TrEMBL record:
Descriptive protein name: CheY-P phosphatase CheC
Gene3D superfamilies tied to this protein: CheC-like
Gene Ontology biological-process annotations: chemotaxis
Pfam families, per database record: CheC
Any one GO MF annotation of this record: hydrolase activity
Species, as recorded: Caproiciproducens galactitolivorans
Amino acid sequence: MTILNLEQLNDMHIDVLKELGNIGAGNAATSLSQMLNTEVDMSTPIVKILDISDAANLLGGPENVVIGILSKLSGDIEGIMMFIIEQDFAKTILTSLLGVKEVSCDKLSDMELSAISEIGNIMIAAYTGSIGTLSQMNLKTTVPAITVDMVGALLSVPALEMGSVSDKIIFIEDDFLSGTKDVTANMLLVPSIDSLNRLMEKLGIAL
């Protein structure tokens, strides 16, 4: 049976996505640790299939200001990947990298935006790298674009770009622990349905 939409994903499919998320988050934690020069641990990622409106609520509501780092996927997997950074995560990163004490997502300097963009680039690469390695599929990503905006505005991008595919997204919630600071970051994945079918087939999962 071919998957026609994200609603058709069963528990086995979700388990596969959780494992991909787990490996991607592990790679991301390692990269973060190297960049911040400090130990970064992670909990097991939470993977959900959500309506875009539900994702907005989990991210603090449509009016919550966050940082979004978006990359388009091409090659064997087509779609969109967006890394969402909230206030606490941004502060932890920028305090460690630049020594800043006060951080406001809607008042970031060019240097701070550049540092956050590099973190997002690393995180997206960690996830796409894990997917490519496990599936032996060729993934290409565009240079990530960084935007600071309200959650509702940011989530309108995948809604517009991939709305013909599905009104749902794959939502991966990651908890990272650096020192005594526990921060959450979220990865949103919206693959084309053809790409999702190819991925599951490559991984040997019955459709």
